Fold these 2 entries.
Entry 1:
Amino acid sequence: MLADAGIVLTPAEREAIEVTDFGLGDLEQYGLQIVVYVNTERVCAKELVLFPGQTCPEHRHPPVEGEPGKEETFRVRRGVVHLHLGEEEIVLRPGDQHTIPPDTLHWFQAGDEGAVVSEFSTRSRDETDVFTDPRIRRV
Amino acid sequence: MLADAGIVLTPAEREAIEVTDFGLGDLEQYGLQIVVYVNTERVCAKELVLFPGQTCPEHRHPPVEGEPGKEETFRVRRGVVHLHLGEEEIVLRPGDQHTIPPDTLHWFQAGDEGAVVSEFSTRSRDETDVFTDPRIRRV
């Protein structure tokens, strides 16, 4: 899917793709595939790959150590993403993007063809993410 | 070149591509074409397009209002980029990237086929950039 989106990875990056099922044991339904390009103290950039219909469950990025929570912009490269912010649903198609303020509950799901999404954000501290489903642990 | 790199822009983004010759009046040699995806107080993401052999002249991003200068990561999507940091030259090919610390002098030039580069950074404040060539004004 990354190759179809024209995205070139180095061999080391291909080996290091992160796959998470959020501890729910049902990757096809609930999960993400992630390429982390950079994650410094100030900036993070990733590509996210979602299988057809795959969902990233509802969560928020709380303040950490006196800093505001993570601010992230999702830009869809391929496929369709349904982004949910509380009661609001935003449909993002290739070239569309949306910026999610810190500490805002959100979840998102790919359409029938899956999706490739670029994420531009402040530092990622995944271990501090707060998920609505108490069964989830993000490590 | 963006389309060849698989990058989809919205019609509004296509209309808003920034073209700068850095005030030198020789765009083919010295300049950049820029798509700004997002530029908040904390995060910026852009695509840069360079013509064959086109150069972005030497500059640095100084501290502004008590914050460290802009930190930027260049990731090459297509073509080859020669990134110069002082005496050091780093050659970046598709999938390669390099993070430039704040306030570090750098310039870069595309190879013979031009280049498409994703830039992930802290906030862009172009008007504060300090160029080595005193003829340059970045507005």
Entry 2:
Amino acid sequence: MCPDIDTITYGLANILDKDRGWGISDDSFKFLEQMKTFGQENWFRIGDRDLALHVVRTNLLKEGKTLSSITELIRKSFSIPTVILPASDNHIETRIETAQGDMHIQEFWVKNHAEPEIKGIRYDGISKADANIKAVELIRNSDLVVIAPGNPISSIGPIISLPSIRKELTSRRSTVVAISPIIGNSAFSGPASKYMEAMGVESSPYGVALYYKDVASNLVISDFDTAYEKKIHSLGINTHKTNIVMQNEEEEMKLSNFVLEKFNIA
Amino acid sequence: MCPDIDTITYGLANILDKDRGWGISDDSFKFLEQMKTFGQENWFRIGDRDLALHVVRTNLLKEGKTLSSITELIRKSFSIPTVILPASDNHIETRIETAQGDMHIQEFWVKNHAEPEIKGIRYDGISKADANIKAVELIRNSDLVVIAPGNPISSIGPIISLPSIRKELTSRRSTVVAISPIIGNSAFSGPASKYMEAMGVESSPYGVALYYKDVASNLVISDFDTAYEKKIHSLGINTHKTNIVMQNEEEEMKLSNFVLEKFNIA
């Protein structure tokens, strides 16, 4: 699985299960229900249609195809016009070190309900990974780079830990804008706060700014977070305030237009 | 896949798709439909629930479990009271040699609609395979052995090609009864006639008798096949005539009772 690529793919194909935040809407779970009768693990709710993508990708990876070529094939299968570029073609896996042992991030979050005490978080394979050259070039040639309000540690962290992507963003940080996934001390959804604290980063818009300070000089924060602005500015980061909670398509469009207008992009 | 074990398992679990003759009734095909959108092969109509069995078995085989222990686990998962014993724990694969090349039997039958000209049929792995000792013992300790009207070449052939099973049946052939899958010159269903002819065996009740003569001294044939009796008797095989076409449960019960009564088994 590549949870972020998959969710982006399904989202752009207009088949994302928005209630769950991942997987395909109206999918069935017959495969998984049958696996359960055989006493197999079934904590990861993979639907019957969703399963096909993971099987195809795993098979093609085994055949030696790159993640980016497979992502491209899948994008075309869904007739998605937007380019989707993985940050790297190498295997990078986020592992959570807990009081109950070392586990895959999905095992921690889905199977163990984020309950084990976190001792550390690491990206296995990151030191040997090369950035996808096409992603580096796209960053170089874009008018604006927007870092979505994804989980800074589990979604964005591995990407900006790749040296050539980090270098590219750092050299153009005045036209990189991140959107905070946190209001006050709480993430909108998911384990962002928990992971940030585990990495020694304060769970707040200031913590987000601190985490992104080398790669972005702009941060979109909530209207409610005026109190954090001065500290954020002291990091050399501009703040832009608006509603950052997106609960429907209208709010999504509003936020994206807000960002584009701020940077004079039509 | 183990088509015969699977069909027996689903049949005994009362979930067999009787119209197709294999797979699970009321299964869905979302996984396969999605695979098709990715340009993957989808000639084998595996349902979403059916897929789980093949994945579990493949995983357990890779972990080093034996086919018979896996079959037992699956049987228990379905609460099937009847013992199901694979003939061997070794990998045996039926290959069809055709004018268009060597292919797996399912590739020949399902993908290529049995159209390529058959040059030969072989059971890969049979010479290195050992019979399942439990199956040999069960044959030894049974009052009667009934060879179902399955395909003699693709379903029964590999089993009776295993030396210790063949030896066991041969030594007790007076209490082994086969049911002909053929009336006149035609098999009820499937490629039995085609495979028999490819193996140089006449497609008729006599051909069936000839194929089974070492392992069975009794053959149940159709009421319509009186003409073949004399030739069959000349092989040292008794004939028992009744309706051998089973189109519903009543006809299935009738045929099985006919056999049990013939051999005085209550």
